[in-house]
């Protein structure tokens, strides 16, 4: 291995972002510029979305209000600077809100309110990302696989409708491939010894290294000498010569073998929580629990006097007694929250009903983290009819940027072909990794734009005045998907 140093003149385009402070707010023009804020300059770097969900945590900027403020700043900056639309003119525009397949109802409500009341769009409608991806790819029935930077989700779509039981989501993705690639390089004396994946500049450098060298092509598995450069702001450029072999392929294979990432068990499986309350939602879980309780009392033959009391005037019942009844009913029908989940809520996550499986007793089944090909098969197996399963397994749509590597399509095809039951087998199997020869990272956004132009979507729009009057109840009535 050889190391060669070059002068600073080659790095003149790599400078720290030195923005001035206006009042108490940083004048941020582009979200990407936040990555180049000089270390120890007094700023807090916030990530408002992680693992495909709002990033709520007990630290600085981790409250729901702070996260929504960050999103308002980012979206407002992108609209005014990239699209060149003044924010005061947004009252003449409409917006489509693309939400995860496994969503938090409270977050959907707050994001809709952000678009309508704070940014000022005239109307909004929300739809799930997998459905939008099918519209962007031009298919109506498919098993949609979304491999992102921090999460991988699988969902079956039939005629533009999500089949709820088929939704799976795991907390691994492209960033795990990057980290695994670095660990493998480190074992073989990676020449850039000062590299630290937890430092922003090094993390960006490793991401570029993965995009440049990693692949899933068996024909490219040979020893190669590669050259890469390390360019950090206000530092000398270092050029390294590196011999690469199987690690370029072994790291991406972690998508098909999560043990490579050190991910096992149930801690990284995402599911929606079952308990949700909202005063503006007439069909929230409090209402459903009360209905179930009264129905259970009638079926069990409780005396009619108590039934009349419950039906006539609930306000006459002592408030504490109602709470005790709800808690008992939750333990019987829903399952009580574990001690860890309660402690997590007390540490600042009380606004989120979105929890990981294994941390809460509110879930019937704790799924294990599965390789991508097995996750697809498990999702398809949850479909109701054999004919539908056959359709899903033979049309797989891969979107997102986490698996944009040469050979990924062939590897996924091989993994599915060797595990598909014979009765579902049908040739040729269609695995779409580049929908309409476009960028899979933007497929869902293109699909959302297509949906906004359809005549059938005109009934879905929620207007600003209506939202202020009816709130979440209107979203439940007009959403083109089942609010669960």
Structure characterization notes:
This protein is of the alpha+beta class. The protein starts with a strand and ends in a 6-residue tail after the last helix. Strand 16 (395-399), helix 13 (408-417) and strand 17 (430-432) form a beta-alpha-beta unit. It has helices spanning 64-82, 105-118, 129-137, 174-187, 200-213, 247-250, 285-299, 304-312, 319-333, 339-349, 372-381, 386-393, 408-417, 443-452, 464-470, 472-478; strands at 3-6, 21-22, 25-26, 49-50, 53-54, 94-99, 123-128, 141-147, 152-158, 161-162, 168-170, 224-230, 237-244, 270-272, 354-356, 395-399, 430-432, 462-463. The protein is 36% helix and 15% strand. It has 16 helices and 18 strands. The model is unreliable at 1-12, 19-29 and 304-366 (pLDDT under 50). The strands form six sheets. Strands 8, 9, 10, 11, 16 and 17 form a six-stranded mixed beta sheet that branches.
